[in-house]
Amino acid sequence: MEYLFSEKGMRKIHRLCSLETLFAFDFDGTLSKISARPERTQLARKTSGLLKSLGELAPVAIISGRNSSDLKPRLNFKPRYLIGNHGIDELEWEKFLGKSTRQICRSWKNQIREFLADNKMPGVELEDNRFTLAIHYRHSRDKRKVKAAVLGKASLLSPPPRIGLGKSVINIIPAALPHKGDAFRKLIWLSRAPSAFYIGDDDTDEDIFALSLPRVLTARVGHKKNSSAGFYIRRQSEINKFLQRILEVLNNCRPAKRKS
Ligand SMILES: [Mg+2]
Question: Which residues surround the ion ligand 1 when the cut-off is CB under 5 Å?
Fold first, then answer.
């Protein structure tokens, strides 16, 4: 992993970026800070302004674990593609998933709710995203213990789910469901973009990082030894700096206005 703002990183960005490049972003922990109250998270005004400017020059996508209806009011701008629920929403996959996936998810939800009640776990919240579940434990007193207990419970669920770890959140995802990597690939196809960029901050984003597609550059928020991302930024607050750099590069790509 290389630092994105290193000479090498910037050289790669310059080479990759054009007005047709697809710029895709995760939301929580990437475009917005991780908040103690995820339900109150709002995109910072500066970041949404930069993304709006970027969207006027090139296609922009947001791919998040949140529902897209939950995501929309937090943005203050309209990206060309808004993909929720780890890539399940809005890519016409919903109609193929059918009742059984929803039933499986409902049965897991009941089992986990019962488990949380039996084990008295204050500060743990269960979020139902219809096709996936998210267990938030940011407010629990002993996070390590709660995480281990919930993971233990999740490993006993039937059929076995795919587990996606985020910051103080455990995502429970039916194994057969498309993941963020599938969504990203479909977006590249839909947008016909000749090159693409993606940045994210946690385990579910590794499904995109691991694709290793040609003409695709990936970055992670925070350095991590075993990540498949090509580059990293040190912290979430560097996202605005990155967006500014991209805008500078793209503005140089614009055709010069004709002199009258
Ligand atoms: Mg994230």
Answer: 26, 28-29, 201-202
pTM of the model: 0.81
Domain containing residue 28: CATH number: 3.40.50.1000
Look at residues 184, 215, 156, 223 and name the one whose alpha carbon lies nearest to residue 13. 215
Per the CB < 8 A criterion, the answer to whether 62 and 25 are in contact is yes
Distance 229 CA to ligand 1 centre (A): 14
For the chain, how many structural domains are there in total? 2
Range of the domain at 149: 94-173
Q: How far is the CA of 234 from the centre of ligand 1 (A)?
A: 15
How far is 97 from 117, CA to CA, in rounded Å? 30
Does 258 reside within a domain?
no
The predicted-structure confidence for 162-191, as pLDDT tens digits, reads as follows 898 888 899 998 887 888 898 999 899 999
Measure 210 CA to ligand 1 centroid, in angstroms: 16
